[in-house]
């Protein structure tokens, strides 16, 4: 009995060690593309590596799995730039609106928050579905992602709450965010979106 318990604890810490390495490589590869050009490749590699670990398909070292996935999606640089540009515009808008006051400012802030939430969920769905068919035209993946995010409302809501919690963790404890946020997001996507498939979209 003690041996079984000991084995279970060993396996648990092996998983934790792998997840810590996933977070480390995520930041390394994200910075390699100056963030704006590596957004999709880095998040794709993150989701794919966490998936490989959870399904026991990580026979290779975590670094090799992450590197291979990153390079498979590295051609989506301009799409990454587009998402990065939109995120920056929304963030700057929220920052400037926060410095202002008035009824119009409140309306614009609500709109900016709405589009930030929508873009965040759409981005995660896009990266998730892109991983299933990298050869599919990017425009179609965006459309499928939007449709699926509405069809799977419960999963989208859980994803949104998780993103909010991770954002709060960045404000509360930056060290925690850097170490835990990447692989925790990978786990959220793995469990929340595992049933979301490209073949389900009726388009």
Automatic annotation (TrEMBL):
Superkingdom of origin organism: Bacteria
Lineage of producing organism: Bacteria, Bacillati, Bacillota, Bacilli, Bacillales
Designated name of the protein: DUF624 domain-containing protein
UniProt keyword annotation of Transmembrane helix present: yes
Organism, scientific name: Bacillus salacetis
Keywords: Membrane, Transmembrane, Transmembrane helix
Transmembrane segments: 24-47, 81-98, 104-130, 150-168, 174-193
